[in-house]
Design goal:
Shape of chain B: globular
CATH class of the largest domain in chain A: Alpha Beta
CATH class of chain B: Mainly Alpha
Strand order of the largest sheet of chain A: 6-7-8-3-9-10
Number of strands of chain B: 0
Low-confidence stretches of chain A: 1-6
CATH superfamily of chain B: MetI-like
CATH topology of the largest domain in chain A: Rossmann fold
Largest sheet of chain A: 6 strands, mixed
Distance between the termini of chain B: 33 Å
Strand content of chain A: 25-35%
CATH superfamily of the largest domain in chain A: P-loop containing nucleotide triphosphate hydrolases
Helix content of chain B: over 70%
Structural class of chain A: alpha+beta
Mean pLDDT of chain A: 87
CATH architecture of the largest domain in chain A: 3-Layer(aba) Sandwich
Structural class of chain B: mainly alpha
Helix content of chain A: 10-25%
Mean pLDDT of chain B: 87
Oligomer: heterodimer
Largest interface: A-B, 29 and 22 residues
Order of helices and strands of chain B: HHHHHHHHHHH
Low-confidence stretches of chain B: none
Distance between the termini of chain A: 8 Å
Number of helices of chain A: 8
Number of helices of chain B: 11
Number of strands of chain A: 20
Number of domains of chain A: 2
Radius of gyration of chain B: 23 Å
Order of helices and strands of chain A: EEEHEEEHHHEHEHEEHHEEEEEEEEEE
CATH topology of chain B: MetI-like fold
């Protein structure tokens, strides 16, 4: 598995690159079984203070189980989970400095917004006199001041989402768990709320762990993303690294849109390979490939559609250029995606920005076009 | 609203006449002047007056009321606890068996339930009186409470309780401050159901009662064997009134709770 470590930069938040940094959460060889089903399979992971950490994967990949183990609703079958250096095996949920925002929000329907937020505070060591101030602070933070007296069913979905957030943040937990926090909101509200979440996370300095199946959401909010599959973590990295240097076909395919071209690799120099994918066609020239690949091994070349340029004439300044026929055009307004068939029958998607209103309409179905990309535009994956 | 076709109107009339005609006649004759039950001699409320001067009936009514209050309260506590464990207890050994067994007394013939209780009371040397009637009524009412409460718990979002635990509640605190307020309408319905059932039970009470304590249904039953008197009609009319109020309150609370829950669930 090709591990690509980003180079630490001065001033950026990247405690995972610092060997001196102390993790807040440590999963050590954690396995969780439900009967014969293994939900989490020998998983080891460190999460650092003040991170906004996203667990991303399809449903049933084990991400919710990991979150429920952090909250204390499930205990690992094997291995240990440490929070702040303490083994959490026998600590019940009500004694953890961890709060959770539930997917259904789980607001108490019989209590007002105010009482929902005060609920946890009334059960903490906080002196009674300080509770109203803290609740007001939370109401301000989530812009809910004028709804304090309403019941949950008297406010909108977006407001309920903020009540749930305020309630889980009120006790100032060391760790906040968010289970699909924006799943119930519509697209526009979801995008606004993502930025609000990041803002609140920054203001409070709380470590956030978010579970989501929405890759755009994970990419937007998280400092690091863990892509999960069948109880295992496939890759943990920053959003740009996950997107640009996926370590497996699974990650490349799960995050965003990608062209996967299978072929055979031949080394042509240091970090440089040729991938031949069809008899008679020119091989793809790849540079800056970090993986060490034996000649003749079966590989997958992955390239994002927006890295491919579509032109009428053959460009002469690009390492890779191939002619094909447009089969389909997907017009999305800001972008157009061209489905192009290469001579060997291989289909390739290329995305072009519709940067001006009138032009870019010069391609049509059955047109012959040239697809070109740089040698460093794609990655070679061995698994 | 739509007008009923003549066919539907007729079937409705026949059906309801079948159900309510006997009761209507009973109520009408309770206002009969004559001592002869079957001969109408003019309107009068004198039998209601007679009834309230009859010590034996008043005693029986008082016993019935206390039995109903105490047994339905006990049944509510036990039934709610049983429902909570069966719905929330996770998987434990014998769970399916227990869930089945809680429903069994609902379909068990009253005679068998009464007889088995009688045998138990004799075996442990418990003198039959008000206490044994209360125990007997608690036994069968708690099943009804358990059924009503567990159906509410099944549709109850589990994460509400988890949220309470997550925010620092102990299991008992979470039940008291979150679960109980939300299932309260079902608990109240269960109590009303138990109260009504206890009020008009004859079979089980007659097995469990002793000479010192008689409930109203037993009293009526034994009085009727000596001949129907207009007093009994008056008493029965009052009982019909009580049960009607109970049933109507039960269905209104249940219906309201359902409406409110729907509104809350649509909200989440």
């Amino acid at each position: 598995m090709a591990e690509t470590k980003p180079i630490p930069q001065e001033g950026t938040f990247a405690p995972w690159t610092d060997p001196q940094a102390v993790p807040l959460i440590r999963f050590k060889n954690v396995t969780k079984r439900f009967g014969a089903f293994t939900a989490i399979d020998d998983l080891t992971l460190d999460i650092y203070p003040q991170e906004f950490f996203a667990l991303l994967g399809p449903s049933g990949c084990g991400k919710t189980t990991m979150m429920r183990m952090l909250a204390g609703f499930e205990t690992p079958s094997e291995g240990t989970i440490e929070i702040d250096g303490r083994d959490m095996a026998h600590v019940p949920p009500n004694q953890r400095a961890v709060n959770m925002m539930f997917q259904s929000y789980a607001l108490f329907p019989h209590l007002s917004v105010y009482d929902n937020i005060a609920f946890g505070l009334k059960r903490s060591d906080m002196p009674k006199a300080e509770i109203p101030d803290r609740v007001q602070e939370m109401l301000r933070l989530t812009r809910l001041e004028q709804f304090a007296k309403r019941k949950p069913h008297q406010i909108s979905g977006g407001q309920r989402q903020r009540v749930a957030l305020a309630r889980s943040l009120a006790k100032a937990p060391a760790l906040l768990l968010l289970d699909e926090p924006l799943g119930a909101l519509d697209k526009k509200l979801r995008e606004e709320t993502q930025f609000e979440l990041m803002d609140i996370q920054e203001k409070t300095g709380t470590t956030f762990v978010i579970v989501t199946h929405d890759q755009e959401e994970a990419m937007t909010v998280a400092s690091r993303v863990a892509v999960m599959d069948a109880g295992r973590i496939v890759q943990v990295d920053t959003p740009p690294a996950i997107y640009e240097t996926p370590n497996t076909v699974y990650v490349a395919d799960f995050i965003g849109d990608v062209n996967l071209i299978e072929g055979t690799a031949t080394a042509t120099g240091e970090y440089a390979y040729d991938v031949s994918f069809a008899a008679g066609a020119d091989p793809i020239h790849v540079t800056e490939c970090e993986a060490d690949i034996a000649d003749g091994s079966h590989v997958t070349f992955a390239i994002r559609p927006e890295k491919i340029l579509v032109t009428r004439e053959q460009p002469d300044d690009r390492a890779n250029a191939v002619e094909g026929t447009i089969i389909d055009i997907g017009y999305l307004g800001n972008l157009s995606t061209y489905h192009v068939e290469l001579p060997g029958g291989q289909m390739v998607k290329a995305t072009m920005t519709n940067s001006s209103r009138i032009s870019r309409r010069d391609y049509s179905w059955e047109d012959k076009v040239w697809l070109s990309f740089r040698a460093s535009a794609g990655v070679v994956l061995t698994e | 609203m739509r007008r009923l076709s003549w066919f539907n109107a007729t079937s409705l009339t026949i059906g309801f006449a079948f159900l309510y005609l006997p009761m209507v006649i009973l109520v009408i004759y309770s206002f009969n002047e004559s001592k002869l039950v079957t001969v109408w001699a003019g309107f009068s409320t004198k039998w209601y007056g007679e009834l309230f001067r009859n010590e034996a009936f008043l005693d029986a009514a008082w016993v019935t009321l206390r039995v109903a209050l105490i047994s339905s309260t006990l049944a509510t506590v036990l039934g709610t606890a049983a429902a909570y464990v069966l719905v929330r207890g996770g998987k434990f050994f014998g769970k399916t068996l227990f869930s089945g067994m809680i429903y069994a007394p609902l379909v068990m013939p009253d005679v068998i339930l009464g007889l088995s209780l009688l045998l138990l009371f004799i075996a442990v040397g418990l003198d039959r009186g008000m206490l044994t009637i209360i125990l007997a009524h608690t036994t069968f009412s708690m099943c009804y409470v358990a059924v009503v409460v567990s159906s509410r718990l099944v549709s109850f979002d589990r994460s509400l309780e988890e949220a309470a635990l997550d925010l620092g509640c102990t299991a008992w605190d979470a039940f008291r401050s979150v679960t109980l307020p939300i299932i309260a309408p079902a608990v109240i319905s269960g109590w009303l159901l138990g109260f009504t059932l206890s009020l008009d039970d004859l079979v089980i009470a007659s097995f469990a009662s002793g000479p010192s304590s008689t409930t109203l249904p037993i009293k009526i039953f034994s009085a009727v064997r000596l001949g129907v008197s207009p007093e009994i009609n008056a008493l029965s009319s009052i009982l019909i009134g009580f049960v009607t109020i109970g049933v109507i309150t039960f269905s209104i609370t249940t219906k309201r709770a359902v409406v409110r829950r729907r509104r809350e669930e649509n909200a989440t």
